[in-house]
Amino acid sequence: MFLRNAWYVAATKAEVADKLVARTIMNEPVVVFFNGRGEVCALEDRCCHRGAPLSLGCATETGIQCGYHGMMFERDGSCSHIPGQTKIPRNAKVKSYPVQQKGDYVWIWMGDPQAADAAGIADYPPDDPVAWPRANDMLHLRASYVMVLENLMDLSHLSYLHKSSIGSSESDSANASMDVSRTERGVKFLRVMRNADAPANWRKRYPTGQKVDRWSDFEYLAPSVIQQFSGGVNAGDYDKGVREGAHLVRTLHAITPETEKSCFYFFNKADGYARFEAPGTPRTWASTSDVFKEDAHMLEQQQLRLENFDASRLIDINTDVARVQMIRALKERIQKEQASKEERLSEPTIQQ
Amino acid sequence: MFLRNAWYVAATKAEVADKLVARTIMNEPVVVFFNGRGEVCALEDRCCHRGAPLSLGCATETGIQCGYHGMMFERDGSCSHIPGQTKIPRNAKVKSYPVQQKGDYVWIWMGDPQAADAAGIADYPPDDPVAWPRANDMLHLRASYVMVLENLMDLSHLSYLHKSSIGSSESDSANASMDVSRTERGVKFLRVMRNADAPANWRKRYPTGQKVDRWSDFEYLAPSVIQQFSGGVNAGDYDKGVREGAHLVRTLHAITPETEKSCFYFFNKADGYARFEAPGTPRTWASTSDVFKEDAHMLEQQQLRLENFDASRLIDINTDVARVQMIRALKERIQKEQASKEERLSEPTIQQ
Amino acid sequence: MFLRNAWYVAATKAEVADKLVARTIMNEPVVVFFNGRGEVCALEDRCCHRGAPLSLGCATETGIQCGYHGMMFERDGSCSHIPGQTKIPRNAKVKSYPVQQKGDYVWIWMGDPQAADAAGIADYPPDDPVAWPRANDMLHLRASYVMVLENLMDLSHLSYLHKSSIGSSESDSANASMDVSRTERGVKFLRVMRNADAPANWRKRYPTGQKVDRWSDFEYLAPSVIQQFSGGVNAGDYDKGVREGAHLVRTLHAITPETEKSCFYFFNKADGYARFEAPGTPRTWASTSDVFKEDAHMLEQQQLRLENFDASRLIDINTDVARVQMIRALKERIQKEQASKEERLSEPTIQQ
Hints:
The structure is a homotrimer.
Chain A: E1 7-12, H1 13-18, E2 21-25, E3 28-34, E4 40-44, E5 58-59, E6 63-65, E7 72-74, E8 79-81, E9 99-102, E10 105-109, E11 134-141, H2 145-153, H3 158-161, H4 170-174, E12 177-182, E13 186-196, E14 212-221, E15 225-234, H5 237-240, E16 247-259, E17 262-271, H6 286-306, H7 321-346
Antiparallel strand pairs in A: 1-10, 2-3, 3-4, 5-6, 6-7, 7-8, 9-10, 11-17, 12-13, 13-14, 14-15, 15-16, 16-17
Helix pairs in contact in A: 2-7
């Protein structure tokens, strides 16, 4: 079950600049592209003539032309040209999806177009490529998008799955303070480890084994975005409010369901160190993607273990507090959307 | 749903000369081979003892021997030898299929053997390897055989899918005359583009951009064969009946269903240019297979788009006129065959 | 349908010494490993927290730690540690399986743990690495474990599938004597070919084409083990009881179901030639694995032919005598186990 009335990342702008992007979203084939005017478009990737993928055609000034028999479609999905005939039948159309550009992404709305409001799209601060250089990547995972969200809402996994990269020790993790609260858009949590060891990947910054205060400020924006604000300072500085020289990271996690069992995991990391480094200092993003690949392998194996399995046999533990709230927030929205759909279906037809 | 009482290409003669050919046809495992006497045979590729594929055995003088426990079968599917015993049980047999050699192919009859009549097999003219040198190839497609037929019955796709090889311009295509008629065996159409640009692949013959008259004379022989007679002459010559120096091509398209969602697409192209060229002029067939591979990619993607999709949402357009007749001709035959099968099943048993 | 109250090979000791072995057995994900004390353990390979595979974690002194969020489990499947909390919920546990080391293997019991009796595990003689050097290998087959058993219980296949390696001629095979008897544990057979040609792989020992007496003494131990005692002597010596210089082989075949359609085929061959050779004579096992790969290809193709097929169309022949008894012995045990399970389910609850 998916929440349809919501914005999801359909593709990066860079992907769409490069080609007509064919992507299955919530089991629907979609083509995302720029038309000749530079407007972003998202249409059903299945021509209404013979079912050919429009993504094998080419963009036109105002829409797209099918590469099989040449029918043309506009941004709204209506057919504007059929080779060899002048009459366009009324049912000559494909589905069209509301679509928006924001940050490094093209966002798509899979539900009722009337309800689409671009104000609901997540902000991705900070948009400052000098002080906060950023990079993004995408993993196509054979795992439910919900599992990826769950992974992020329980950071205790860093001490195990990522122990040789970004994880703190088990005891530092067990001693973390954790504040969780529901918000209008989902769930927030603030997790702080005080006087902790710096993780392996911070060695360049803390080579002497100096103790640090380390925090993670996460906000889940239902249904499928998480904004991460993480940082580290010398031990003792966090509660004093000292942020001078802080090791800061801002990450946007946007997970788009492909099917019930697979998803596209887009992540986008801005690196606040750069404020304290000489301009032009070379940066490497490889370690970031490597960490996410540790998650990817675990998630795909977890997916296999949970198929054909009675999930009611699983248990929740203390570290699940934010994860459980996240699931609740997501389910409430899905149930509400389903109920409203059923209500509309059962409305009596007005007799005239 | 398949039409069973019909001839389908099972394999090329060259394949069968080379090995025991194992091929699934209409979901049935079949082995096609020459016995020691050079007779072509087609049997169920599943030994009646333990289900082993006979295609892993070897041909005998009169039939085949299973490579697992040595049972032997004759051309009619009867068992003639069981190692270690003299008695052959009555039910020791495998299914046998009527089979014929014609042209470059071995043809198989998947229906009632009593109804098989070799006269119904498509002729493939011309059998003249000097004036009409020919070549054949086969593509194993993850697409319904019906989609391949549909592809061929609507040539407007050449202007889009094959625009850089054999396609004419959209306007030449839109101006084509089209005559369609039902025949006893299926559907015929004649499509003529007058005073058109020569397609890219004709550059060798029309290097100066000279205008041409171009025609395609297609006959669909239900259920799964299309005979193509195509040609080109200097603009103006077609209606005058001038064929001197014509660019002529004869192609046999034979599409054999493997499953509902996959097929074997055999094609065989004879090249009439050769009549006007010095004997021994080198020819290349690569471009022909390249064109069919453009179709293959489109068809497999189309297949994916139409699975789990309500095909009644698709629309027909003007260029579909021959395709729609083809589908009608095929469906009529299938419905007739099904009705006759049900009739036979409901015939009362005569009481004696 | 599987027989659950029985020992199956889960893995070789060498595999488990090397890593945490993740293996699906009878559709259940299992992790087999040594804990820090060197005790062998088998647990459900799915953490009770979020379903992560425990096989991606690491062994502890007494059990295993999940690599996702750090929960620890003991050999009996109970949870002994949850990071960040002291209370362990009662339902925090994973399934544990009885497990034993014997011969070169770790054996697992997939049924009622109370019923597990290590005395039932097959002996694998001889454990004498000097006179009887041995080697083992495993094939992961996309074929039912039953088919592998059936393959072994009808040795007439050697003359066809293995004719260029270990097969005798068809006539030698047809003349073989065959004694079959049911045993408490399953079925035994003794198959003797007298005055037969030596097979191709015996050329090193019988280079002059000398005739041999060749025998195969097989015992099926239901549900999934076959012990093979094979040998050859100069023609005429078998009935005289002469075994001096005999070509002897002892093979253990243990086939473990992964799913209904796939299995792990473990085989272990001890070579008695070595008794008559100078110590240190180099041996090659490649030919043994090559022979089993001939079986593997046939079995996987046979599996495909029998899916969606009415197996009642298959027939039994004379050489099936031991195979048929084997199937009967296996089915009886499965039916008995099923009946006993239903009986337990229908026992009235005692009112107090």
